[in-house]
Design goal:
This protein has 218 residues and is α/β, with parallel strands linked by helices. Helix content is 53%, strand content 17%. Helix 4 packs across helix 5. Bound molecules: erythose-4-phosphate. Erythose-4-phosphate binds next to helix 7.
Length: 218
């Protein structure tokens, strides 16, 4: 199970990369807008790609196939870690197929149904990104979609990796693992939450207090 960080915040990316906790990064236009200010997003993308040793999803913003392909080429040229992210639309699927034919890796995003996931796999996507939290937000069962995609991909032997996205809390991460997702992408706060348990804190406090009674050093 690969863990990606879902952010464009370089401080958080460096903190997680230094701890060797992440296998890659996913970004989207909203995440970039949060941190870019007046900076050129392409500079930020390059810094992110240099900060991690793994795939970094960079999203196109064109809506027609030719624009997506042109943007995808530029994004892929930023760094060898770049993976082109395209939306799951008719144009996005066409762009996916064209970019894959040119040797690029593609993450198809904004997936909300198993039939969409099937089409992305047939278009040669390296990753499919089902948005679990946004389905939950509309009273749906986001995790059920991960389960269905796993089954369909296994039934037909698709190599596309299931990248559980829009995860909002640690239980989403655990459930993604149980459903057989290949990767999950987490906002930084969820990654840090995964390291914590109140019994760990309490246990450590006791160990240290008991050790102090020895007055010894290691
Ligand atoms: C995935 O690639 C997206 O960037 C992200 O997971 C969306 O999450 P949100 O629904 O919390 O915005």
């Amino acid at each position: 199970m690969k863990i990606f960080l879902d952010t464009a915040d370089l401080g958080e990316i460096r903190r997680a990369a230094e701890a060797n906790l992440i296998d890659g990064i996913t970004t989207n236009p909203s995440l970039v807008a949060k941190v870019a200010g007046k900076r050129d997003p392409k500079e930020i993308y390059l810094e992110i790609c240099r900060a991690v040793n793994g795939p970094v999803s960079l999203e196109v913003v064109g809506v027609d196939k030719d624009t997506m392909v042109a943007e995808g080429r530029k994004l892929a040229a930023i760094h060898e870690n770049a993976v082109v992210k395209v939306p799951l639309t008719e144009a996005g699927l066409k762009a996916c197929r064209a970019l894959v034919a040119e040797g690029m890796r593609v993450n198809v995003t904004l997936c909300f149904s198993v039939s969409q996931a099937l089409l992305a796999a047939k278009a040669g996507a390296s990753y499919i990104s089902p948005f679990v939290g946004r389905i939950d937000d509309t009273s749906g069962e986001g995790m059920h979609l991960i389960h269905q995609i796993r089954q369909v991909y296994d039934n037909y032997g698709f190599a596309t990796e299931i990248l559980a996205a829009s995860l909002r809390h640690p239980v989403h991460v655990v459930e993604s693992m149980m459903m057989g997702a290949d990767c999950c992408t987490l906002p930084p706060n969820v990654l840090w939450q995964l390291t914590k348990h109140p019994l760990t804190d309490r246990g450590l406090e006791t160990f240290l207090k008991d050790w102090e009674t020895l007055g010894a050093r290691i």
